[in-house]
Amino acid sequence: MFFFDPSYFLFAGPPLLLGLWAQYKVKSAFKKYSQVPTQSGITGAQAALRLLERNGLGNITVEPTQGMLSDHYDPGSKTLRLSEEVYGMSSIASVGVAAHEAGHALQDKSGYAPLHLRSAMVPTVSIGSNLGPILFMIGLFMHGALGSSLAWAGVILFAATALFAIVTLPVEFDASRRAKALLVSQGIVSQREMEGVNAVLDAAALTYVAAAAQAIMQLLYYVTVLNRRND
Known about the structure:
Blueprint: H1 8-33, H2 44-53, E1 61-65, E2 72-74, E3 79-83, H3 84-87, H4 92-110, H5 113-140, H6 144-185, H7 194-230
Parallel strand pairs: 1-3
Antiparallel strand pairs: 2-3
Helix pairs in contact: 1-7, 2-4, 4-6, 4-7, 5-6, 6-7
């Protein structure tokens, strides 16, 4: 039975542990450096606005949003949304996260290809991440060519999720790179304060690595199960 296949844990276990470790690291780093105020006294919202305006992006709206670490940039509406603990707080963690999101806006302005590819993939990924596993399961428990076709269709749909996770990596790494460079050059944080910024953004990057690993390993498991079934 698929549900009790012990080999599943060989594929799912390592990336799951990595994901748990990444979540711990990002929450721990954010908690620590959200309690360390910036010497400049600049809040996350002010930091984002400064970076946007000085890079010709004064048309982008910066607004608060609910949910812990729900910060994101919406290229469709040209809106940068910051969680409440980032928007109004003048901590090293808040300006680091805000600058990272501003980095996505800078990517959008410069036509950064991976960002636009990721945005274009969102509709397909929304379908693939939900429908793919369902088709795979249905096909797995059906006999004959129809079952095999359904299962492989599920694998192909889910492959979009894995590809999305892979494309996300350079997008997030590049946004952090831009943020780190701008924070010092614009005088928002000092070189000494960058230790905290690095800790927060590097921990956040690890969560995307874990997500990519989970998607890839799940896809490999699906392929392995189908190949094993056809042997």
